[in-house]
Specification:
The complex is a heterodimer of chains A (about 475) and B (about 475).
Chain A lengths: L7 E12 L38 H13 L3 E2 L2 E2 L2 E4 L9 E4 L6 E2 L2 E6 L8 E14 L3 E3 L8 E3 L6 E7 L6 H17 L12 E11 L9 E6 L2 H20 L7 E6 L4 E7 L9 E2 L6 E2 L2 H8 L6 H12 L3 H7 L3 H14 L2 H19 L10 H12 L5 H13 L4 H8 L7 H14 L1 H8 L4 H13 L6 H13 L1
Parallel strand pairs in A: 13-14
Antiparallel strand pairs in A: 1-11, 1-12, 2-6, 3-17, 4-5, 4-16, 6-8, 7-8, 8-11, 9-10, 12-13, 14-15
Helix pairs in contact in A: 2-3, 5-6, 5-7, 7-8, 7-9, 9-10, 12-14, 12-15, 13-14, 14-15
Chain B lengths: L7 H9 L5 H19 L2 E3 L2 H16 L11 E4 L26 H8 L4 E5 L33 H8 L6 E5 L5 H7 L2 E4 L19 E6 L2 H11 L29 E5 L9 H16 L3 E5 L7 H16 L18 H12 L2 H14 L5 H21 L5 E5 L15 H5 L6 H6 L3 E8 L5 E8 L4 H14 L12
Parallel strand pairs in B: 2-3, 7-8, 7-9
Antiparallel strand pairs in B: 1-3, 4-6, 5-6, 5-10, 9-11, 10-11
Helix pairs in contact in B: 2-3, 5-6, 7-15, 9-11, 9-12
Classes of the chains: A alpha+beta (about 475), B alpha/beta (about 475).
Amino acid sequence: MNRGHDNWEVVIGLEVHTQLATRSKIFSGSSTAFGAAPNTQASAVDIALPGVLPVLNRGAVECAIKFGLAIGAALNRVNVFDRKNYFYPDLPKGYQISQLAKPIVEGGALTIVIPSTGSGQSEERIIHLTRAHMEEDAGKSLHEDFHGMTGIDLNRAGTPLLEIVSEPEMRSSAEAVAYARALHTLVTWIGICDGNMQEGSFRVDANVSVRPFGQKEFGTRREIKNLNSFRFLQQAIDYEVRWQIETLEDGGRIQQATVLFDPDTGETRMMRSKEEAHDYRYFPDPDLLPVRLDEDWIEAVRATLPELPVAMQARFQSDYGVSAYDASVLTGSRALADYFEATAKACGQGKLAANWVMGELSAALNKAELGIAASPVSAAQLGKLIARIQDGTLSGKLAKQVFEGLWEGAGEVDAIIEARGLKQMSDSGELEKIIDEVLAANQKSVDEFRAGKEKAFNALVGQVMKASRGKANPAQVNELLKSKLAS
Amino acid sequence: MTLSDASIAKLAAQLAGKQVSSRELAQTYLERINALNPAINAFITVDAEKTLTEAAAADARIAAGQAGPLTGVPVAHKDIFCTDGWPTTCGSKMLHNFVAPYDAHVIQRFKAAGMPSLGKTNMDEFAMGSSNETSYYGAVKNPWNLDYVPGGSSGGAAACIAARMAPAATGTDTGGSIRQPAALCGITGLKPTYGLVSRYGMIAFASSLDQAGPMAPSAEDCALLLNVMTGFDPNDSTSLEREKEDYTRDLDTPLAGLRIGLPREFFAAGLNNEVATAVEAAVAELKKLGATTVQISLANSQLAIPVYYVLAPAEASSNLSRFDGVRYGYRAPEYTDLNDMYAKTRAQGFGAEVKRRIMIGAYVLSHGYYDAYYLQAQKIRRLIADDFSAAFQTCDLILGPTAPGTAFKLGEKSDDPVEMYLNDLYTIPANLAGLPGMSLPCGFDSKGLPIGLQLVGDYFSEAKMLNVAHQYQRVTDWHSRQPEGLK
């Protein structure tokens, strides 16, 4: 957390490049699949042969419309594509087709939940968005593959991007990460981005500045480019904030600049200063006509939107009685939310289902480095397991053993209970017999309890549970033990 | 056979009647090219083997009864159209080694029609010029007098037709590049409504102005060629989706009732007397055919040249960014780093006029100048188009001179860009408005150099313009005259 830099307030705005999940590129018919051999997915248009022309992929526009609707933004009805001119070997045309003056999405907001630190409550905040616009990605320069030369791979050139720009409303790295996570959840949730950060499908630039608390004007910002994990985002901002505060406290000045984060050193270093900034000579691309969004098109796209995370969080709280924080965790992805809801429906126990999904199941998945979609335990099975806790068949402890069985693929819940003899003891005669034996063998504890030592009671409960090999129902043990000691 | 009076219709009839084969025809034209091209330099690339192969394929189609109306008629292509397997230089050193790996849409159409290519014609570098002197492959000479320029940028196309080295040719027109050389070489050329002919595969100069069109001795020829060239192309977003027209359908319609608009601005100071006299005589001829005239005003056309020299260079500066030495074309042999490679490649690969326009374009788009130049020019462009709309309320066609004078001497204007630019004074307004325009021969000056008159019609009025031109050519013989020495 950056709060606590005494006199300094941190100001962060994020620009996120999300690769849109269309099958073909934004201005050509080439595939967007990741990982093909260099330049095998680069058509005449992608390598910018003389004479070629762009043709807009309407699928990319629909992704942008979906996003705009999901964040409650205004959609520009007339969309103009602009050329952003600069020279770079992996930018084949010498310009990038983007949107400057009229982005497709303007405004909108995202609710983020900042996890509690220590004992505090988690906190909800609304972050406003400035805009989101469509553009094409560049190719890749391969500096390491050839000695003394740079290779150019244009497979990625022309991949559709939605650049999503937030207002500078975040005040700590934790908030920035929470925002980035919420955005990541949303774009994958609505299916416009695969969210794969290693493959560059979701790349974050962070604009960071600091100012004395109470000062109205923003400090001079530096932009950290191309962060491809939430951890790097946090580390980079934390380092940058410390660096800026130290610089200012040492009497220095911050120069507007673009910086890169080096994960190996954990430091940011300057890439270029404002003086070196390009004049991109933007102008409307004469090869593309303005794209008009009519109401029918927008409504048709709206009809394809799933229930959104915020709506689902509210519903989870009211329908299943889970806390706001749990609801936000459970809607961390659509797959997780769907899993939770299926589990809750299967057992009729929302809170218990939430605890199991967020507890035992998440821990096991994390340990095995599996996503929820790859869970070896189905929601139906987990629901059944919880139902067996609810009906008294299983204690919590036994249930964990059954869960292990499910995880290992040992069969259905009831079959595992049967096969491993994990059923909770329900025969009170059998239990009474065990209690009698325990009381007889632990006369010392009995005497101590009767002498007023409450702790001795717990020891006796423990002995009974042990003697039953965990199968006794703890509540029943308590009750029987109490009545026997009272007699 | 004699090529001197070989109209496309006649050649097509002879081919259909098996009086001549496409191979024989191609061979005859190739021999004439061999004989005359060294003096005229109308072609950059001739490849007899390729031409004869295509001609043989056309003969096979004719023999198989699968011929289209023009199958077997050979045609020359401006070296701005990418042609699969042919060098495509765009008149520049930058593309001296570029062999296109695909066919432009226009080339595809001619191939589909079974019309063999006679070669690639010379042009001003990247179509920037009005005299064909900016070509890296040397100036083209005007067949009417080899000391004079043929006009440009489609100078090679106009000259090869004037010298009957080809029966027809393709051209492109951004500010007059079909019409002005047609006028200076005494042939007929038509620039269609913007969007009628696909720009795909046509190396871009100024995308919002570029339009391909036919060049040939007569209006009837142009109508037949236009039938081949036009049609919707999904690969060009600015291509118009409309029903296919037969541009020969109105050729024989009488002119009674035709209202010809004469813009006073096109007959004002700066117009050569001999040109004015010839154009006025043509008006008199048309009146005899039943036309009436009406005075009109295109007041804002006075601003056409400054507007054009903001917008066209702006688009060109961006369109030509792809010529960076990275993927194809010329690359400087020696350089120290990436920026040096760019700088040297472009300094050595582009000629003076191209560099001048790139610099003008970069300037008018740069930060702080965009509003004053680019945006202002766009507004005036709209006013110029509005003038035309108003004029077409009172007339069916607009008539005037194509160029302010006849051909000028090689080198005469090459040191004075502004003087050179003034040559397109009357042709540029149609490009800015996206309107169709054509030039047809209407006489000769005292030096024996051809004079052209221009028709500008409303959008999609090509058939009407061709009708007027054809009726005029039925009663005059300017278009069928040929340079004495070359017969």
